[in-house]
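Attaching the record inline, Q. Sequence:
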Amino acid sequence: MANTNTLTYAIPTLLAQGLMALRANCVMPRLVNRNFENMAAEKMATINVPIPSAITSVAVSPSYVPPDTAGVVPSSVPIALDQWYEAGFFLSDKDQVESINGLIPMQASEAIKSLSNRIDAALLGLYTDVYGWAGSSGVTPFASDISEITAARTVLNKQLAPNDDRRFVISPDAEGNALGLRAFQDMSFSGSAQGIVDGKINRKLGFDWYMDQNVPVHTTGTVAVSWICKTSTAVVAGLKTAVTTTGGTAALVKGDVFTIAGQTQTYVLTADATRSGGGDMTIYFEPGLKTALAGDEAITLKASHTVNLAFHRDAFAFVSRPLADNADGLGNIIQSAIDPVSGLALRLEVSREHKRTKFSYDILYGLACVRRDLACRIAG
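Structure, as predicted:
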C-alpha cells in the first residue's frame, strides 16, 4: 500500500496551497492583457506587442498614381520574459515528520505570498509610464464625493480609451472612503446592496473596482528654485524632449508628472533628470507636446502621491509561462500547475540538502506598459 505521508503525495497539496495564495493576493495579473502568453516559452524570450498606427481618412481621388501608404507603420512594445524568481523554505527531517500536515502548507502559502506580492507590485509599478492625471496629491480620493473617478473617466475618454474592460485599482484608504459614500451604500443610488453587505464595490461608473494593498506611493523628485522652459529655445508641438533651466539644483525621477503653463495636458518624465547648481537641463517625456513652446513657460511638478490606477486592460501586458518539470534524473521532485483564476504558472521543486528538505516555488514572467494613453492616475 502506498505511503501517503511521502513527499511525492504531498506535492499536489503544496501546489494547491500555493495557487490559493496566488489567487487571494495577486490582483493585477487578472486585470491586464494576457493574450500573448502562447508566444513565450523560455527565459529571455521577447514578445513584440503590436501597436496600431493612426490612420487619417482622405478624399478619394482616382488617379494612375497609387496613394502613399508609407506613413502607416505600426509600432511595437517588447516584453522580455526575463523575470525569474523563487521563494523557498527548508524543513529538517524531524520537522517534516512532525508537521507534514500543518507547517508545510502554511509555509507554502507564505512562500507564494512573497512571489505574488512581487508580481502584483511590479505590475502596479508600471504607473511610472502613465501621464493621465486626476485627483490631488496627498488627498485620499472619495472623502466627500465621487468626483475623482468621474474626472479619471473624462481623462480616459479624452485619451480615446475604449469604454469596455476598464478597471480601477485603489488603496485601502480610498476604498474605505468610497464605501462610506451614499452613492455606494444606498440602493437608490447604486442599484445593489452588495457594496454595504459584502464590503465590495465591484462594477461602478464604467469600471470594475478592486482594492489592492500594494498600491504604490510615488515620491516626486525635487526642483530647488524655479523651473522653466529655456527662454531662447522654441519647441514645436509633438516633440518629446525640451531644454529647461532652473535657478538651483534639481533631481527629477522617472514617473514624475508635470504641467506647462498655458497647457492643460499633464506629462510624465520617461527618464531621470538632474542638475547641480542651476542651469540647463534636458528632459524627456510623454506624450508629445500638445502645443508648441516659445520659451519662458513655467513648469510645475506634481507632488508625491499615492497612485490609484484607472485603466483599460490593454494599457499593460503580462506574460507568464510554465517551466519544465523534468529534473533530468537528479532525484528532485518537480511539478507545475496553472491557477485557473489568475492564470499564473507555478512550479514547485523539492530537493535534499544536508539532512534537510528544500521546498522551492518559482515563476517566470515578463511585463510592460503597452499603451500609456489607456491609463490614468488618481492621486491620493
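The chain has three domains: 7-52+75-126+317-372, 133-215, 220-303. The two ends are 61 Å apart (CA to CA).

More tomorrow.
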